[in-house]
Amino acid sequence: MITTRTSSLFRAFLLNAPAALGGSAALEGVMMKAPERWALAVRLPDGAIHLEVHDDPALSKRFAWARWPLVRGVVALYDALRVSSRALSRSAELAGEEQPTSKTALYATTALSLLLGLFIVLPGFLAGLLVSAAAQPLLYNLLAGLIKAAILVGYLLSIGRVPEIGRFFMYHGAEHKAIAAYERGLPLTLENVQRQSAYHPRCGTTFIAFVILTGVLVYSLMPAPEVLWWRLLGRVLLLPLVAGLAFEVLRYSAAHTDPLSSLLKALGFRFQMLTVRQPTEDIVEVAIQSTQTATRPA
């Protein structure tokens, strides 16, 4: 799903350092993305771990314009969706489509994709029933943002009760832990990885929270908010700008420790509590092998 499969894959595009690493949860597995390649590790039905690696340089490595401020956020989103979708599809094949876990997670991914379409337009429409967008644009957009957050939180709380999705969220937590250990230069052992936090400041779930925040400000500046069709269509047209700004906020807050950055990170961690579970050792082992494969010298 968008919040987990794009999730910390953003960190591979947030940094320009050669050691940049990102990833996302897959079905019974973890995908890790290094600057020049991505690796997928999947726990097969027989208990073995399948490993594969794909050469796939990030767009930000190939094109200078893909590293421009604001533009890089949209590029990161595209790259994250592209790679994680491939990994998710491949992991479904490897894990066995007949398994309930695979079917449930794929259905949840599709449902969330549809939900995100409503997530853009529906809150603006509902907020307009309660507040005048023309007379009180900031209040209107703040209300729309709260409705967005309520839809997202309600949905994630709902699917989080499904055991199979809970296991998917454990792979998300394992991916965060493995990247944290790698970034600290620690040997990738079960003990070292399990000691790391399951939350990460550059997670895609945090990015979605920041999209809601920046959307309140950007949409409040839209001209002619009294025109319903433009007010709703404009939210779609301005989404790349909102995503670009949210990415810059994410990038800044992850790299700083000032009070505002700390507050933003705390907010992001609260959202991550909806998509992250503490992983078991067998799940962490999958994340470790994916990390080692992705970062192994060519």
From TrEMBL:
Q: Does the keyword Repeat apply?
A: no
The record's annotation in InterPro entries points to: DUF1385
Which keywords does this chain's UniProt record carry?
Answer: Membrane, Signal, Transmembrane, Transmembrane helix
Entry's transmembrane regions: 105-126, 138-157, 203-222, 228-250
Q: Which residues form the signal peptide?
A: 1-22
Record-linked PANTHER family: MEMBRANE PROTEIN-RELATED (PTHR42867:SF1)
User: What is the protein name stated in its UniProt record?
Assistant: Metal-dependent enzyme
Organism encoding this protein: Thermus scotoductus
